[in-house]
Amino acid sequence: MRLQTPYDEQYATCSSTHAWLRIMDAALDPDEISKILEVSPSKVQRRGEPHPRKPGKAYSKSGWFLATEGVLESKDARHHLDWILELVKNKRDAFQILHTRGYLVDLCVFWDSANGHGGPTISPSQMKILSELEIELWFDVYLQDSE
Questions:
Q1: For 35, 114, 129, 139, which has the most beta carbons within 10 A of its beta carbon?
Q2: Rounded to 5 degrees, what are φ and ψ at 15?
Q3: Which helix (H) or strand (E) holds 64?
Q4: What pLDDT digit, counting tens, does each position of 30-78 carry?
Q5: 23 contacts 33 by C-beta, under 8 angstroms
Q6: The domain containing residue 29 runs over which residues?
Q7: Based on the structure, what is the number of domains in the chain?
Q8: Burial 11-48 (b: 16+ CB within 10 A, else e)
Q9: Can you say how many angstroms the Cα of residue 115 is from the centroid of all Cα atoms in its chain?
Q10: Rounded to whole angstroms, what are the CA distances from 9 to 47, 77, 79?
């Protein structure tokens, strides 16, 4: 059996990381998403509500978010992915409903490099769950100035 890279809470090449599952659409009702997934969100936004970081602007889409920011301290992105995936991994039928409705469904890992190199690790079991749920994974990566 092939050995996997061990989890590392301190993940030396990472300054900070967190992850979030994002479900968005102009016609989305965040309360309905909670019922479909049987999971409470970390945050919601509703179309038409004022955008807190953009004065005079309103959200053009509603959103439902399940996030690890402020929940987990680990610098290993796999811990953050595990936390989210554990809550949704057996909900393939629920995600099929969301996909059929045409909602944007994805999972993002924010990853801030400690020294301008390195990157997050994703386990094969995490990739399998993401594939089964048809959830796209993307990275919001920040690199330190190399000067």
A1: 129
A2: -90, -40
A3: strand 62-67
A4: 999 999 999 999 999 999 999 988 999 999 999 999 999 999 999 999 9
A5: yes
A6: 15-142
A7: 1
A8: beebeebbbbbbbbbeebebeebeebbebebbebbebe
A9: 23
A10: 37, 9, 8
